[in-house]
Design a protein that fits this description.
There is one protein chain. By secondary structure, the protein is α/β, with parallel strands linked by helices. It has helices at about 5-15, 35-45, 70-85, 100-115, 120-135, 145-155, 160-180, 210-215, 230, 235-240, 240-250, and strands at about 1-5, 30-35, 50-55, 85-90, 95, 140, 185-190, 220-225, 255-260, 265-270. It has one domain (about 1-20, about 30-270). Helix 1 packs across helix 7 (about 160-180). The chain is globular and about 50 Å long. The two termini are about 35 Å apart. Mean pLDDT is about 85; it is low at about 1-5 and about 20-25.
């Protein structure tokens, strides 16, 4: 069984931020349009990054009929990354085995209840891992030990702070391992739009690896967050962001919008279905 951890992390961040004030995003956020997500990513790769960290705004049961960012990534963006020389893909997920007993079972059950993700999500992650492997990209996932389950759920309730820190640490570990692998060139990661942040809010800074990994690769790092417009249009936290207003002004039917939110930090918003 595969537990889709990045979805819980994205949801957990909303829980942590719900009653807090977000810092101002760059006022000079710049937006442009592209004919496709693949074309947008190819343009961004012109900066010759060593690591590209993708984040997504997650899908829920309520939005299950609208193709997810994960599906877009697998079908549209992954082939472009492979053509550009991607060799490694770190995915924010883990495999549960049941070997950690009751605490593992309860933790996974709580993930399912909290995220309200559609059943298809698990299949989409498996598809991503399989297609990466088939295309010659080495996939990596997180390694969660019994002590980790105990730390995040030992009290009977999910400790979101510990969960987010664990996920950050695991992602950083796997990215560093990919960077050190012989033959590694372009390392890609995919998860929730939290941990990859280069310029996180004060509240989310403890959960982000972006700045640390960027330093490790001498600044050759890109943060690219992927948004399905129907998912974010009613989210007040997103709508308050200056980059969202830039997106709305740049919006054109059937086109992808790319917003530069800061140095090395971008948002790609897919076209609306209608």
């Amino acid at each position: 069984m595969i537990a889709i951890v990045f979805l819980l992390c994205a949801w957990a961040a909303h829980v942590l931020l719900a009653a807090q004030t977000l810092p101002a995003a760059p006022a000079d956020a710049a937006a442009s349009t592209c004919p496709s997500a693949a074309a947008a990513v190819r343009a961004l790769l012109a900066s010759n990054p060593r690591v590209v960290a993708f984040g997504e705004y997650h899908q829920t049961e309520k939005t299950a009929r609208i193709p997810s960012a994960l599906r877009h990534f697998t079908s549209e963006i992954l082939p472009a990354l492979r053509t550009a020389g991607a060799t490694d893909l770190v995915v924010e997920t883990w495999i549960t085995t049941g070997s950690c007993g009751e605490v593992e079972r309860k933790a996974v059950a709580r993930v399912d209840r909290a995220t309200q993700r559609p059943a298809s999500t698990e299949n989409e992650v498996v598809t991503l891992l399989r297609r990466a492997k088939q295309s010659g990209i080495e996939p990596r996932i997180l390694q969660v030990a019994c002590k980790d389950y105990q730390a995040i759920f030992g009290s009977g309730r999910v400790d979101y702070d510990r969960l987010l820190r664990l996920t950050r640490d695991q992602l950083e570990t796997q990215i560093r391992a990919a960077l050190q692998r012989p033959g590694s060139r372009l390392v890609v990661s995919y998860g929730g739009a939290i941990h990859n942040d280069l310029h996180p809010s004060v509240e989310l800074a403890p959960y982000a690896f972006g700045d640390v990994i960027a330093h490790a690769v001498d600044g050759k790092y890109l943060e690219i967050d992927l948004y399905v417009p129907e998912y974010i249009e009613k989210d007040p936290l997103i709508r308050r962001e200056p980059w969202y207003q830039q997106y709305r002004r740049a919006f054109r039917p059937k086109l992808v919008v790319v917003v530069q939110r800061g140095p090395g930090s971008y948002a790609i918003i897919f076209p609306r279905r209608r």
